[in-house]
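Example S7 (structure tokens).
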């Protein structure tokens, strides 16, 4: 058993601490949850590094998958990208946007496992996007501002980092069709709807994922799901025909008109995408029973795991897709 599967002591394996997490008082269980997640992260990064490289289309691909990635989530990003490319059986370009924390080893790992991947360094992106936004002061404030907030585990991050998903992924590419993919999304079956859209130049529709189910933790520590009162767009999986959707003038007006929301909402870029997309007649909602947020079943095509434990628990399913190349 490797060190990554041991959490509290050399004699206490991960399987034991996962059991204890659900049976100890909440203060101890919360501590174990954090430690166990770190152990799972290391264990499953080893798994994905043992998989074979998945070549992707290089510069000039007609359809590109874009992902914002940081050092902490490199392993997850590989799982996510490899699962999409192998499940879709479709030629995609892949573009990874550095959030500023990737190091040389991270970049080397991505290039080794995804031959043909394009890596955009944060410094290069900042210079290019600043020039593109020179006439858009509200957009510039959002893209280059910094608002430090803490998550429920006391970790601090820049709430405006997600602005790269709104600006960089659209401004730093010549491709018209782009797929925005968060690092915590896994594919389990061929996404026929997305693959067919990607293969048809005449199909200019927009596909967007939604949060359709609300989780509730029971006394046994397990989650059950019920429908949300309203389905909300989630930017973790979007398929855009950029020329049909992306309009900097509209974005500038919307961002400039919602300053209070910009400084309080951690999903401001997601709300802007909702504004751009959901009013369109050609916008198609991805079925949340098949492309769920946290919600996953044996019938699921893909799941966005906002709760990271679910991501790790479902990696054996993704491994079967990647290893099978199907």
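Recovered sequence:
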């Amino acid at each position: 058993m490797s060190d990554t599967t041991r959490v509290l002591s050399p004699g206490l394996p991960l399987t034991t601490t996962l059991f204890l997490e659900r049976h100890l008082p909440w203060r101890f269980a919360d501590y174990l949850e954090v430690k166990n997640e770190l152990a799972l992260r290391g264990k499953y990064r080893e798994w994905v590094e043992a998989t074979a490289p998945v070549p992707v289309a290089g510069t000039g691909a007609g359809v590109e998958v874009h992902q914002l990635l940081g050092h902490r989530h490199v392993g997850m990003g590989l799982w996510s990208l490899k699962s999409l490319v192998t499940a879709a059986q479709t030629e995609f370009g892949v573009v990874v946007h550095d959030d500023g924390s990737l190091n040389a080893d991270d970049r080397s790992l991505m290039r080794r496992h995804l031959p043909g991947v394009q890596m955009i360094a944060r410094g290069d992106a900042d210079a290019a996007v600043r020039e593109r936004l020179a006439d858009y002061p509200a957009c510039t404030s959002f893209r280059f501002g910094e608002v430090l907030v803490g998550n429920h585990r006391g970790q601090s991050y820049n709430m405006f980092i997600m602005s790269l998903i709104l600006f960089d992924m659209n401004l730093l590419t010549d491709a018209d069709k782009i797929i925005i993919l968060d690092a915590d999304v896994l594919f389990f079956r061929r996404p026929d709807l997305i693959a067919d859209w990607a293969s048809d130049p005449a199909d200019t529709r927009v596909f967007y994922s939604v949060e359709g189910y609300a989780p509730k933790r029971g006394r046994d520590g397990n989650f059950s799901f019920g429908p949300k009162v309203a389905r909300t767009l989630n930017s973790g999986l979007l398929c855009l025909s950029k020329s049909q959707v992306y309009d900097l003038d509209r974005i500038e007006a919307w961002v400039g008109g919602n300053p209070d929301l910009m400084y309080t909402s951690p999903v401001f870029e997601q709300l802007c995408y909702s504004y751009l997309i959901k009013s369109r007649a050609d916008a198609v909602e991805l079925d949340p029973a098949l492309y769920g947020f946290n919600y996953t079943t044996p019938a699921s095509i893909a799941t966005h795991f906002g709760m990271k434990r679910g991501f790790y628990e479902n990696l054996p399913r993704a491994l079967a897709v990647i290893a099978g190349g199907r």
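Notes on this example. Residues 3-48 form one domain.
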